[in-house]
Write a structure and sequence with these properties.
- It is built from 12 helices and 17 strands.
- By secondary structure, it is an alpha+beta fold.
- Strands 6-7-16-15-12-13 form a 6-stranded antiparallel sheet. The chain has a 6-stranded mixed sheet with strand order 8-9-10-11-14-17.
- α1 packs parallel to α4, α2 runs antiparallel to α4 and α7 crosses α8.
- It is globular and about 65 Å long.
- Keywords: Hydrolase.
Length: 403
């Protein structure tokens, strides 16, 4: 590691929260003779790169800044360098530096990665970066929903994950959540009924109830039951949520699912699209004391899963709905893309279909299982242990599908 990189990390860590990019620029000027350093943050819609200091947004596909963002690698064009500002798979934007030579990009990229980590660390305590990454004002309901999210993308050796809400600046009741501990990843997509803040507050209650239950270490079915009871206790069945809960064993590919009147689960395997036949159970909060059942799907290495709300299928163009046929075609086209690019492409196609913003909420989450990590035990022995562990708490009629 070079001395300028060490200095860069130290400068970022010591900088006031509003001067992170300024301190990086000062270091780059001192060490590399770079006259201008600008942070371009991706907006809530994943459609524009917005300069932190104001100015013209970068929206043109194929622009070097977008090539850097899309390919997650430093890009050099006409004396200008573009560096990915990303951490743990979460893409925050691009750092634009000028003038610079191609030979320096690798060193500069290390500092850009350090900047991404520091931006994530300070984001909750300042509005500087959040304000600068919106191209227009969020509705109050959308503000609530975005505050709930765990991020928009996540990358580990065994999986890749991405999600997005639409309409990004006016979403109401749709949301998603995820968490992983290195051995498992949990996902939830939520479609809260109602409009505006009423829908967003219902989704907030369900998300926090699900997190509370998950962090108690209980089964997926019990997580659903506890969240169901929390919603019912407050609304007595007058408001409820369609929810899909998943838990993936990253060592074995065994997927556990609870379908509570939920968005659909779609599998992309070897270029073929199939909707997974899950048992649709009552939405969370519809009735008191609902008992939920788990189902199982065995994934194969390289499988891609989409969690897709009805707002995608039901989106209306000038003469027809988007529908399952258009969805299947688009999902097949995403096969060579990263998870985040797959989500962006699907929602971009949807916006083009409706010729503008969606009128109903839509959520898309994409999960790629890349196979067990090399240091984990052999898959068969781990999977056998997982099945044995469940045997004492699962009735015999809970079927494992996809095997």
């Amino acid at each position: 590691m070079t001395e300028p990189v060490d200095k860069g990390r130290a400068a970022i860590t010591a900088a006031p929260v509003d001067l992170l990019v300024t301190r990086v620029g000062e270091l780059f000027e001192q060490e590399y003779g770079i006259a201008d350093t600008e942070l371009l943050q991706v907006d809530y819609r994943l459609a524009a790169l917005l300069p932190l200091g104001g100015g013209e947004a970068v929206t043109t596909p194929g622009h070097p800044a977008w090539r850097c963002f899309d390919h997650q690698s430093p890009t050099h064009a006409d004396g200008v360098g573009y560096l990915p500002v990303s951490m743990r798979g979460e893409r925050r934007g691009v750092l634009r530096v000028t003038p610079v030579t191609d030979a320096r990009l690798a060193e500069l990229a290390e500092v850009a990665t350090a900047l991404a980590h520091e931006l994530a660390a300070v984001d909750a305590g300042t509005d500087v970066y959040r304000v600068a990454r919106r191209s227009r004002r969020l509705t109050l309901a959308a503000e609530v929903q975005w505050e709930l999210l765990p991020g928009r993308s996540r990358l580990r050796p065994s999986f890749s994950l991405a999600g997005q809400l639409e309409p990004a600046y006016a979403v109401r009741g749709d949301s998603f959540d995820w968490s992983d501990d290195g051995q498992r990843v949990w996902l939830a997509t939520i479609n809260g009924m109602g409009e505006g803040v009423v829908a967003s507050m219902l989704t907030t209650l369900a998300t926090c109830a699900l997190r509370n239950a998950r962090r108690a270490g209980i089964s997926l079915a019990d997580q659903a039951s506890l969240a169901d009871q929390a919603v019912y206790d407050l609304h007595r069945g007058e408001q409820y949520l369609a929810t899909l809960l998943l838990e993936l064993d990253l060592r074995t590919g065994l997927l556990t699912a609870v379908d509570a009147g939920s968005p659909r689960l779609v599998l992309l395997r070897d270029g073929e699209v199939s909707v997974q036949p899950l048992e649709e159970q009552f939405p969370l909060g519809m009735f008191e004391g609902t008992n939920y059942r788990e189902q199982f799907v065995q994934l194969q290495r390289g499988d891609r899963l989409f969690m897709i709300s009805d707002g995608v299928i039901e989106a209306a163009g000038s003469t027809e709905r988007y529908g399952q046929t258009a969805l299947d075609r688009m999902l097949r086209r995403t096969a060579p893309m990263t998870a985040l690019d797959a989500v962006r492409s699907l929602l971009g196609d949807l916006r083009a279909f409706v010729a503008g913003d969606l009128t109903d909420d839509a959520v898309v989450v994409c999960l790629d299982w890349l196979g067990p990590q090399p240091e984990t035990p052999p898959a068969e022995s781990v999977r056998a242990a997982a099945v044995d562990h469940r045997a004492d708490r699962l009735p015999q009629d809970r079927q494992v599908s996809g095997e």
